[in-house]
Specification:
Low-confidence stretches: none
Strand order of the largest sheet: 3-2-1-4
Helix content: 25-40%
Mean pLDDT: 94
Distance between the termini: 63 Å
Number of strands: 4
Length: 151
């Protein structure tokens, strides 16, 4: 059956511009037993620490690598609330390297701040990383490290 007329979105110009930084989180919760018993709470704290402690403009991209419904529902709720900008839900676990390929190809920002889902972010974390990148523009990667004394 042929379409009649023209797509009304054709020729429209968008004012969309991605943030300079895409904060990308890789999540995985296959179940809530044994090793993964507390993983939902850990992942929730990771994402909430990013949201609470990142005042700089950024887009939040979450790639879920085939998790259980509990985590998927939580992530979808954050997306619906506008807290996650980009949510990619994989129907199966494609491994970390496969997920990283998708994340780095999908991230719209000039800078990608990647993390696993078990990191707690302190206030000022992104600003400090960006200072290094801006001071040394040929830098390829900056990483943070956990300091127990600060917790």
């Amino acid at each position: 059956m042929p379409r009649i007329g023209m797509n009304p979105a054709r020729g429209k110009i968008t004012d969309y511009k991605p943030a300079r930084v895409t904060v990308a989180v890789l999540t995985f919760l296959p179940n809530t037993e044994g090793y993964f018993q507390n993983r939902f709470d850990v992942t929730r704290l990771c994402i909430e620490s990013i949201l609470a402690n990142t005042p700089e403009p950024y887009d939040l991209l979450v790639y879920d690598n085939g998790s259980a419904p509990q985590l998927v529902d939580y992530l979808c709720g954050l997306r619906e609330a506008g807290r996650i900008d980009y949510l990619i839900l994989s129907g199966q676990n494609i491994g970390k390297i496969g997920a990283l390929r998708i994340i780095f190809n999908a991230a719209p920002g000039e800078v990608v701040a990647y993390t696993d889902d078990d990191v707690f972010f302190m206030p000022g974390w992104l600003d400090e990383h960006l200072k290094v990148l801006d001071t040394y523009p040929k830098t390829g990667m900056v990483t943070g490290i956990y300091l127990r004394d600060h917790m």
